[in-house]
Design goal:
Helix content is 45%, strand content 17%. By secondary structure, the protein is an alpha+beta fold. A four-stranded antiparallel sheet has the order 2-3-1-4.
Length: 180
């Protein structure tokens, strides 16, 4: 994970065809040799959540414990605390309609297929805009609703203060390792 470069951005907009959207994202990832994952932001509890999912996904791939074949998809699994791809896509996958999305971009030296040079922030924003979205990092802000959507109970939340809700989310990401 040494030398890993990443960026997380929120985006809002309308997606007419989720399949075509994902194809364009995958093409951008291949052209740049980076991992790219767009996920429904309704369960994203801030950039710390995404970074933890990315770090766990890369580590899982490096150690051969991965459930998915790509860093992008493995990150999605960790972000929502699932080990089944279909369940993860159902919870946090891209859907058609008006959406808030978390866009995750990563370059990981030495990892086949995503060891390319990371585009600049302005190039990433330009790509998001070409997808018909506008950047809006506010969609990634943690809320109690997102906490509960991630499967964290009110009882669990009550054991910590609001400022430590993110710790519960990070614990959920880490616990995904146990599901294997």
């Amino acid at each position: 994970m040494e030398g890993m470069d990443y960026a997380f951005m929120g985006a809002k907009g309308s997606i007419v065809d989720a399949g075509a959207f994902v194809e364009r994202v995958n093409r951008f990832a291949l052209e740049n040799r980076i991992a790219v994952q767009f996920m429904n932001a309704r369960m994203v509890y801030g950039k710390e959540h995404l970074l933890s999912a990315l770090v766990h996904a890369v580590r899982s791939l490096e150690q051969g414990r991965n459930s998915a074949s790509s860093p992008a998809l493995e990150m999605l699994l960790y972000a929502c605390g699932e080990k089944q791809i279909s369940a993860a896509l159902g919870k946090m996958g891209v859907i058609s309609g008006e959406v808030g999305l978390a866009a995750c971009f990563a370059s990981v030296p030495g990892m086949a297929g995503c060891d390319g040079h990371m585009p600049t922030e302005s190039e990433l924003v330009n790509f998001i805009e070409k997808l018909g979205l506008r950047r809006d990092d506010a969609v990634m802000k943690g809320t109690p609703e997102k906490l509960f959507a991630l499967g964290i109970s009110a009882q669990e939340a009550a054991t910590v203060g609001v400022k430590r809700y993110v710790d519960l989310v990070l614990e959920k990401v880490a616990m995904t390792d146990i599901l294997q």
